[in-house]
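ARCHIVE CARD
Drawer: 12
Card no.: 0347
Subject: one protein chain, sequence and derived structure
Cross-reference: see card 0346
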Amino acid sequence: MAVNCSAFPKDLLESEWSGYREGAFAGALANKKGLMEEASGGTLFPGEIGELALEPQAKLLRVLETRSFAQIGDTKPVSVNGRIVAATNRNRLQEADAGHFQPDLYYRLAVFTVPVPPLNVRREDIEPLPGYFLHLYAAKLRKRLRGLAAASCATSPTTTGAATCGS
């Protein structure tokens, strides 16, 4: 279950993560399961977790520690069991040292870290991307495409042309 942390205002994110009970607030016309409950038994993927405000970070940390949470408008805890795989383009340790990221949450999430350098450091990884996306979206749109023009593929000095780029 993926959620882009930077796409939600702080208050809306909490109701999306934890869910809510009917009547908990204006507009809560029915019970709604949250993303954490939906992801139970699987994986919750909070993308751009570095953009998350401190208050929701503290609530997420509590869920990780207790494996439970209460929905908005309810007092009974909901138990969850699953994985968290988070992504960010920020250095979470530096953010924690600067007071922008909960240090305890950092250490809870940093059990297994996969650093991925930016593409400008991995120029050899740029060349296959246009062809990959061409095939991906051609299949989704049910279009038959032959490839990209060499000029379209000239994203780096190592690009060799349309045959490689569009294959």
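Annotation on reverse: The helical segments are 10-18, 35-38, 54-66, 92-97, 103-109, 128-140, 150-153, 162-165. Residues 54-66 form the longest helix (13 residues).
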